[in-house]
Design brief:
475 residues, alpha/beta, 15 helices, 15 strands
Length: 475
């Protein structure tokens, strides 16, 4: 069994990470009734003998002693990490796997990337190596960060580059939360575009998430609960509407519900690595099958049923409807409509009591309404995990390499150019050692090239389907 390490950077990264670890523990607790440390747990957790101190030896078999997350927590403002360490999850994190400062990055990519990156480089590398040493077969690093702030975007992408340098053979999956159009951080377009250049060059796969989409999904679920649609009632300890298990009990934080959605995405993405199934999908297969060109590695994700995220008691969705929902724009985690754009490839990760025949039937049913590139008409990758989400019969995660991400990048570039044309706020960046104006021009050029690559693919949509020419044998 392989292991993965989660690197959560900045306020957003650590808050999402906190929800992920909480939900992961609940999921394993529901399956692992005997309290035995098994391969499923080992994928994201160490079993440590703490009787001789907090840094005791790992226990590879037998009963669970003390679970420690395979994680590195980084934030240049220590508030969120301190909250986690004072909350219910405090024993899950090894204090030696934390890196914090007190002053923060001031919403400045250059401070996070150039200043703190240089200052903390050796410390980060040492802790990454220590975490990797505890793994038998390290397969993947999951980075969770936001694009709009300073630490998440700046230091988060610095860590991404470090991982490529230090662990070139280990996959790098990045979950990036993009700011909304009404973001209150004025410099977020600068931070996002500067971070995008690093994601283009150093990530294997990027799962872009937009705050606006998360907000819309949460509103829909709350509306469903409040109106009693479909006879729905919320469970008392719902992971969506309750703060149970979060860093602070009591009143729910504004972003807890949105963070739960991202945490559920990661749970479903890693379900095949953690549990058995009739058709397990390895993380390496996602990158191999969904990324035909190295820079076009942005995968649009959708989750269904959404009620899974709310622990809402509703009649379960028909299986076929669940597949249809996965391709509707209401279920996408970015503001996009993939059905009207071009697919390069698509992965379906199904959990629960679903048969392979159900999967094939629904793919055949949906194929005529979806536009795939002419050279990859059969670009489907499927996975079946037998363990469903807690309290539900089945769920579906769809990952699409689709040109529908282009409008998000175009809108980001437009917001960047509004500031950059006036040279507004540039001085805050340029006084940082190692930061030059060429960093901005190179970043926007990289983004423009990416948009152009998607445009070239879009231009082929609707064209005649041509079979590849075959080799002619000369006799």
């Amino acid at each position: 069994m392989t292991q993965s390490v989660v690197v959560q950077v900045g306020q957003c990264g650590n808050q999402v990470g906190c929800r992920f670890w909480d939900l992961a523990l609940r999921e394993h607790a529901a399956v692992n009734k005997k309290g035995i440390y098994d391969e499923a747990l080992s994928s994201f957790f160490r079993n440590v003998d703490t009787r001789s101190g907090s840094d005791g030896p790992d226990i590879y078999k037998g009963r669970i002693c003390s679970l420690k997350a395979r994680a590195l927590l980084i934030d240049m403002e220590e508030g969120v990490v301190n909250e986690i360490l004072q909350g219910p999850l405090r024993d899950v994190f090894d204090s030696k796997q934390l890196i914090t400062d007190v002053s923060g990055s001031g919403n400045n990519w250059a401070v996070g990337h150039k200043l703190y990156g240089t200052q903390y480089r050796e410390n980060i590398v040492e802790k990454l190596r220590k975490t990797a040493e505890h793994c038998d077969c390290l397969q993947c690093f999951f980075i969770i960060h936001s694009m709009g702030g300073g630490t998440g975007s700046g230091l988060g992408t610095f860590v991404l580059k470090l991982l490529e340098d230090e662990f070139p053979e280990v996959y790098r999956f990045v979950t990036s939360v993009y700011p909304s159009r009404e973001d209150d951080v004025i410099t977020s377009p600068y931070n996002s575009v500067l971070a995008m250049k690093e994601l283009n060059e150093h990530a294997d796969c990027v799962l872009p998430i937009e705050n606006e989409s998360l907000f819309d999904i949460v509103n829909k679920i709350h509306q469903m609960i409040n109106t009693g649609k479909l006879g729905s009632t919320a469970k008392q300890n719902s992971v969506l509407i309750s703060s149970a298990g979060s860093a602070k009990t009591g009143q729910e934080k504004p972003f807890d519900a949105m963070n739960n959605i991202v945490a559920n995405l990661l749970l479903n993405l890693t379900s095949s690595a953690r549990f058995e199934g009739s058709l397990n999908m390895d993380l390496s297969e996602i990158s191999m099958n969904l990324v035909p060109f190295p820079r076009l590695h942005y995968l649009v994700s959708s989750l269904t049923p959404l009620y899974t995220l709310a622990d809402v008691n509703v009649p379960s969705r028909r299986l076929d409807q669940m597949f249809s929902d996965a391709f509707s724009k209401d279920h996408q985690l970015i503001q996009a409509d993939p059905k009207h754009s071009l697919y390069l490839a698509c992965a379906l990760l199904v959990r629960g009591n679903v048969q392979l025949s159900d999967l094939r039937r629904n793919i055949e049913r949906l194929k005529p309404s979806l536009h795939f590139v002419s050279w990859n008409q059969e670009g489907w990758k499927t996975g079946l995990c037998s363990i469903p989400p807690v309290g539900h019969s089945h769920s579906l995660l769809a990952l699409a390499n689709n040109t529908c991400v282009k409008p998000t990048f175009m809108e980001l570039k437009e917001r960047f150019m509004k500031l950059y044309k006036k040279k507004a706020h540039l001085h805050h960046y340029l006084h940082i050692d190692g930061m030059e104006q060429s960093c901005f021009s190179e970043a926007v050029s990289s983004l423009s090239d990416l948009i152009e690559e998607y445009s070239e693919l879009d231009a082929t949509k609707g064209g005649p389907r041509t079979d590849p020419s075959r080799l002619k044998i000369v006799v």
